[in-house]
Design goal:
The protein has 435 residues and is an alpha/beta fold. Helices cover 45% and strands 12% of the residues.
Length: 435
């Protein structure tokens, strides 16, 4: 059996998709990952084959730095980072406008290349990152079945009544006016219409008889796999298409001797990371660091693209690097401080770790709202929360009550018994029914 995995050339996407593929690899199947060249080492690290399929103008091998991107992508990133400093609605509005050039880069060319890869690999099963729009366009137009992996919060695949890019839920720390939300929804609606027209035009170029899609953002494969714990989605009122929840896609990481020595100390610690993109907001990381010093809690901090010097005086007991083994460190953390990226949230929750979420963009707001609704952490506005408020929130997370702790324990136990890769394998191979 051969599995083909199709994903954009970003480590934060390749890592969970490759982790899902390990179920096929361990069962003796051949696995080929179709992506761009930047993440070739990541793919090789999983012992998987790679075929070249760039799907966008940018890439990210692990830490996203604007200066390492093509000129137009670098300008887009700088505009995005600036928008995050102006707040939630400016950020979401900026991202909405950028989608017209970012999500369907060379759609016909990329779609045709996708079909060439499918013909070359001749897979028995296909897993596709939901955000690989040009690749999904090709498969859907050609009538090729695939597993549609939604790596973000489930709202990354909008359902009835939702508009892509306008979160269906907001944490309490964010209070945009009704006028701001109306304007954002109108903008996202216009982007969805234009994006859908672009999708349908490309589909007709691929196949003049192709049926029109009413909302390209809401289109999906026959099999939808949400990289998300079912317990976090419970009670949010959203009606989902036929699906399976994977929980999380916790990957195995190489043993880091320095990290193991640091962990051997045995003292409680916080794990802090804003991911590969938003680590550039080292002004917020600096306030988090000050809050942790006030609480007296040691920390493992992944600075990413941020400047470690921005953190101020780093206690001798801390572990600070640009990149850290996130899964390993979350496994023993007392809490995680995160931007709310889906990998960070699901990997923390899947190991029973409560959260302090400081969301900046996209589906991070919906994910943070779920954390708040289920009581497994706190959410603050990263642009407004000072060190004192952050310190208070850290103390509150550390002292969560029995009910939220019990929920976290239940989620961790369930994921340990049935990891995400096994669920994906069962669903795509028909080994068992999962919903």
């Amino acid at each position: 059996m051969t599995l083909l995995v199709i994903t954009p050339d970003y480590a934060s996407h390749v890592l969970p998709l490759a982790t899902l593929a390990t179920a096929w690899r361990d069962a003796g199947s051949d696995v080929v990952v179709a992506t761009g060249p930047a993440t070739a080492a990541v793919v090789a690290g999983f012992g998987l084959d790679r075929v070249d399929l760039p799907l966008g103008r940018g890439s990210n091998a692990g830490v996203m730095r604007a200066g390492e991107q093509p000129k137009d992508e670098a300008a887009s990133l700088e505009g995005f980072f600036d928008a995050t400093r102006r707040g939630m609605v400016p950020t979401l509005s900026y991202q909405a406008r950028e989608r017209l050039t970012d999500l369907m880069w060379d759609p016909v060319g990329r779609a045709r290349r996708t079909l060439e890869v499918v013909e070359q690999v001749a897979p028995d099963a296909i897993l596709v990152d939901h955000l690989a729009f040009s690749a999904r366009l090709a498969l859907q137009t050609a009538g090729i079945a695939y597993g549609d992996v939604v790596l973000g919060h489930p709202s990354a695949l909008p359902v009835a009544g939702e508009v892509y890019g306008c979160p269906p839920a907001w944490p309490g720390a964010f209070t945009p006016s009704s006028g701001e939300l109306d304007d954002l929804r109108l903008l996202c609606g216009e982007v969805a219409r234009r994006f859908t027209a672009q999708w349908n035009a490309a589909a007709r170029e691929l196949d003049p008889a192709a049926a029109e899609t009413p909302d390209a953002f809401a289109s999906h494969g026959d099999t939808v796999l949400y990289n998300y714990p079912a317990a976090l989605a419970a009670g949010d009122g959203r009606v989902l298409p036929p699906h399976a929840f994977l929980g999380s896609t916790r990957r195995e990481e190489r043993v880091d001797d320095d990290v193991e020595r640091w962990l051997a100390d045995g003292e409680p610690y916080a794990y802090v990371s804003f991911g590969s993109f938003l680590s550039v907001r080292d002004d917020v990381l600096a306030r988090v660091a000050e809050a942790l010093r006030r609480v007296g809690l040691r920390a493992a901090v992944a600075t990413g693209a941020g400047d470690p010097a921005a953190l101020g005086e780093i206690p001798a007991t801390w572990l600070v690097r640009d990149v850290l083994p996130q899964v390993r460190l979350l496994g023993g953390a007392a809490l995680a401080v995160t931007h709310g990226g889906n990998n960070s949230v699901t990997e923390a929750v899947g190991q029973g770790v409560p959260l302090l979420v400081l969301p900046f963009s996209t589906d991070q707001f919906a994910g943070a709202a779920a954390v708040e609704r289920r009581g497994i952490g706190r959410v603050l506005d990263p642009n407004r929360a000072g060190a004192a408020a952050l310190a208070d929130a850290i103390r509150e997370v550390l002292s969560l009550g029995a009910a939220p702790r019990g929920l976290l324990d239940d989620i961790a136990r369930e994921q340990a018994l049935r990891p995400g890769p096994g669920i994906a394998y069962d669903v795509l191979t028909g080994a068992s029914a999962t919903s």
